[in-house]
């Protein structure tokens, strides 16, 4: 039986997660067990730690985890190892999620709000698969040293092993099979040895196991240009930690508000995925019913598609969000006046339609 653990967290986390919960209840998926646990500051208040052993075990035993957000000024003063953010890091480490999924999708109703021309961005639907636990952010040696001539030198190491490349490659190819069936692998094999190995390993994995998926390669600088010039050419973009950090932010922001952007982190096949909005706990608007719940609801749709084996339900949820936007439903961040609950109502109404 599939199970989904909700970790609402802090600030607007519980507000937006409550709307995802209402969508889930309306879907009434057979054989899906739903549970909830305190997380982050809420867990510190109740149990003294941001992630209890019970909540961690529940996450590891579930099929998918849907998080809200953690943190806020209330817990800014607590010691580092029991901060809300420490709970998030511990959860990600325990779940061994090495692939970060960042979709960039442009809903027609919001295309005119993009910084790109509507005819360039409208209908965009691409998915970044970014390697998350390796590369230059983690490679050794790293440091700042003083040279014999007195100059200082800062250095980091970009490093990838075959197995690190292959496991995130598997994630990208498997997801492409659930989408339009195309993977573009992005590196700088022209100037970096780690990029040469990346291209070789992805090419070999493709030939061995994923011939039915269309594979192309692109240099990261060209990819940046293409994302602005003709972003709709992409389906899945597979890339490393550093390039993925920059390129996924670039693509996501061209589609609109922070309140619309979902994400996921996946580990080995068959292990639970961690789904969450890109945004944080937004203490400035928390408790006022102003938060846009779409990022959480679209994160739920990703969980349905990529972990819970319910792609039809995922399609229904995404179509309902799109239909609500087409009908003019807007929270304040999108220039409208609907409350969090009001936006949830508008999406629920379309889900039933
Ligand atoms: P934030 O994403 O919480 O807020 C940035 C701005 O966007 C704010 O003006 C906020 O009102 C607005 N915003 C965010 N989500 C929105 C939504 N759904 N609807 C409408 N407006 C929205 O980032 P910030 O302010 O840097 O961080 C606040 C707290 O959240 C901090 O404690 C931070 O550590 C935490 N945080 C947690 C994350 C997580 O749990 N994964 C990720 C990012 C930040
Ligand atoms: Mg970033």
UniProtKB/TrEMBL annotation:
Alphabetically ordered keywords of this record: Amino-acid biosynthesis, Branched-chain amino acid biosynthesis, Cytoplasm, Leucine biosynthesis, Magnesium, Manganese, Metal-binding, NAD, Oxidoreductase
SUPFAM superfamilies reported in the protein's UniProt record: Isocitrate/Isopropylmalate dehydrogenase-like
Catalytically driven reaction(s): (2R,3S)-3-isopropylmalate + NAD(+) = 4-methyl-2-oxopentanoate + CO2 + NADH
Co-factor binding comment: Binds 1 Mg(2+) or Mn(2+) ion per subunit.
Family membership noted in the UniProt record: Belongs to the isocitrate and isopropylmalate dehydrogenases family. LeuB type 1 subfamily.
Isopropylmalate dehydrogenase-like domain ranges (all copies): 3-347
Molecular functions per Gene Ontology: 3-isopropylmalate dehydrogenase activity; magnesium ion binding; NAD binding
Cellular component GO terms held in the UniProt record: cytosol
Positions marked as site (Important for catalysis): 137, 188
Listed PANTHER family: 3-ISOPROPYLMALATE DEHYDROGENASE (PTHR42979)
Broad class of where this protein is predominantly found: cytoplasm
Assembly and binders: Homodimer.
Binding of NAD(+), residues: 72-85, 280-292
Record-given protein name: 3-isopropylmalate dehydrogenase
Localization per Swiss-Prot or TrEMBL: Cytoplasm
Gene3D superfamilies given in the database record: Isopropylmalate Dehydrogenase (3.40.718.10)
GO biological process, one term: L-leucine biosynthetic process
Cofactor(s) the record lists: Mg(2+); Mn(2+)
This enzyme's EC code(s): 1.1.1.85
Biochemical pathway: Amino-acid biosynthesis; L-leucine biosynthesis; L-leucine from 3-methyl-2-oxobutanoate: step 3/4
NCBIfam families membership: leuB
Residues annotated to bind substrate: 92, 102, 130, 221
Positions bound to Mg(2+): 221, 245, 249
Enzyme's top EC category: oxidoreductase
């Amino acid at each position: 039986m599939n199970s989904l653990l909700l970790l609402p967290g802090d600030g607007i986390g519980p507000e937006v997660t409550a709307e995802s919960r209402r969508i889930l209840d309306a879907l009434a998926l057979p054989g899906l067990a739903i549970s909830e646990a305190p997380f982050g500051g809420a867990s510190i208040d109740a149990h003294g730690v941001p992630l209890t052993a019970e909540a961690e075990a529940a996450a590891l035993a579930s099929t998918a985890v849907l998080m809200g957000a953690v943190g806020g000024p209330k817990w800014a003063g607590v010691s580092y190892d029991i901060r809300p953010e420490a709970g998030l890091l511990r959860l990600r480490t325990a779940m061994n999620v090495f692939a970060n999924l960042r979709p960039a999708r442009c809903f027609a109703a919001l295309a005119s709000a993009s910084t790109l021309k509507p005819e360039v961005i409208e209908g965009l639907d691409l998915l970044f698969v970014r390697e998350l636990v390796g590369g230059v952010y983690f490679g050794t040696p790293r440091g700042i040293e003083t040279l014999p001539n007195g100059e200082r030198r800062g250095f980091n190491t970009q490093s990838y092993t075959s197995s690190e490349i292959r496991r995130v490659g598997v994630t990208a190819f498997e997801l492409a099979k659930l989408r339009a069936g195309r993977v573009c692998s992005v590196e700088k094999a022209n100037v970096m040895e780690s990029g040469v190995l990346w291209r070789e390993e992805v090419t070999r994995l493709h030939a061995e196991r994923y011939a039915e998926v269309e594979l192309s390669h692109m240099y990261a600088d060209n990819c940046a240009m293409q994302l602005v010039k003709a972003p709709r050419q992409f389906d899945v973009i597979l890339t490393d930690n550093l390039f993925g950090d920059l390129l996924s932010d670039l693509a996501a922001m061209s589609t609109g508000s922070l309140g619309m952007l979902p994400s996921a982190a996946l580990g080995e096949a068959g292990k639970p995925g961690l789904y969450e909005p890109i945004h944080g706990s937004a203490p400035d608007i928390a408790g006022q019913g102003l938060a846009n719940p779409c990022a959480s609801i679209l994160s739920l749709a990703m969980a349905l598609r990529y972990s819970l084996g319910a792609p039809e339900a995922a399609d229904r949820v995404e179509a309902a969000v799109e239909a609500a936007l087409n009908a003019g439903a807007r929270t304040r961040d999108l220039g409208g006046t609907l409350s969090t609950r009001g936006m949830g109502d508008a999406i629920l109404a379309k889900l039933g339609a």
